[in-house]
């Protein structure tokens, strides 16, 4: 019988007693306190950003403003207040949600952590944060949404009067109204 020891990442050994077989076990204590805090904050941020109410709020904002943006190298002055409003909306929503979820939460401290570890972020969280800090990314988000919205088609059918005796020669029927338009009604 062999005694088994476990080495922890903080440098101490743990004696597990005697076992039939000697096994090699690697136990991870989760890293430093800073790593654990950052992971906890990012987890809370993921929950906030992926929450349906946040997604709906962001979608409504983008949908109502994306038509202003044009795909050109020149940026209009009217883009700036839209960008600032978006940044404030996202920051306030995230800060409120994280403050509710994390006791003693400090947005300033979290922003410092994000800047120091920005390479660790990816996916929707990264895109949302990048859109808040980088105007070009924000503009591309708006243009992407606009392109998608322009591709959405709507079919509107109006009721019509049913005539008992229909002509079969293919005559024009103004009483059947079918309109196909983009999501913006153009």
From TrEMBL:
Superkingdom of the organism of origin: Eukaryota
Record bears the keyword Disulfide bond: no
Major subcellular site: cytoplasm
Subcellular location: Cytoplasm, Cytoskeleton, Cilium basal body; Cytoplasm, Cytoskeleton, Microtubule organizing center, Centrosome; Mitochondrion intermembrane space; Nucleus
InterPro entries: ARL2BP, BART_dom, BART_sf
Domain BART as annotated: residue spans: 38-149
GO terms of biological process kind: maintenance of protein location in nucleus
Keyword hit for Transcription regulation: no
Sorted UniProt keywords: Cell projection, Cilium, Cytoplasm, Cytoskeleton, Mitochondrion, Nucleus
One Gene Ontology term, aspect cellular component: centrosome
Similarity-based family: Belongs to the ARL2BP family.
Name of the protein this chain belongs to: ADP-ribosylation factor-like protein 2-binding protein
Organism: Palpitomonas bilix
Organism ancestry: Eukaryota, Eukaryota incertae sedis
